[in-house]
TrEMBL record:
Underlying gene: Anp32b
Protein name: Acidic leucine-rich nuclear phosphoprotein 32 family member
Chaperone listed as a keyword: yes
A Gene Ontology biological process term: regulation of apoptotic process
Keywords on record: Chaperone, Leucine-rich repeat, Nucleus, Repeat
InterPro entries hit by this protein: AN32, Leu-rich_rpt, LRR_dom_sf
Family: Belongs to the ANP32 family.
Main localization category: nucleus
Record-level Gene Ontology MF annotations: histone binding
Compartments (UniProt record): Nucleus
Region (Disordered): 131-205
Amino acid sequence: QVKELVLDNCLSDNGKVIGLSSDFENLEFLSMISVQLMSISNLPKLNKLRKLELSDNRISGGLEVLAERTPNLTHLNLSGNRIKDINTLEPLKKLPNLRSLDLFNCEVTTLINYRESVFTLLPQLSYLDGFDADDQEAPDSDPEADGDGEENDDYEEDDLDEEVIDDEDDDDDDLEGEEEEDGLDDEEEDEDEDGEDDEEDEADD
């Protein structure tokens, strides 16, 4: 039943990660970052695997294993490996569903016309190193989460608007309070003056 398996930083034994077998037949995501893999020849058959993370290993070739063991792969990350030539990627042509390939920090990325060559070699690819052939960045992989984010933004803006309105109401209340106090002060002054006039009249009498 396991669909995702992360084995990052687990040391491999002669290119084999202990415990990883074809028993994981429902696996859709497998991450083996920095496990000192020199070869993927011991990768078990995982027919349902979609995403494979193999960055920061020592892989320099032997990619034909992927078409045989992971035929439905859509995302492959080989960043930080020892891939030097475009021809090394040729076996990936046999992965018809491959849409995204990452080769950051591989020597092959320093070659002249690297991006054009890879897109020509692998026409099924939509994104190489996070960008398409027209240098447009790959969209976020979780648009539903983005949608929720927009709703939250709207919600927060509404809250802010209400707070601003409340603040304005408070300001108005303060002004009214000050005006009432001023009015009271004026009335008290008038009463004091009237009292003084009455006292003067009594003194005259």
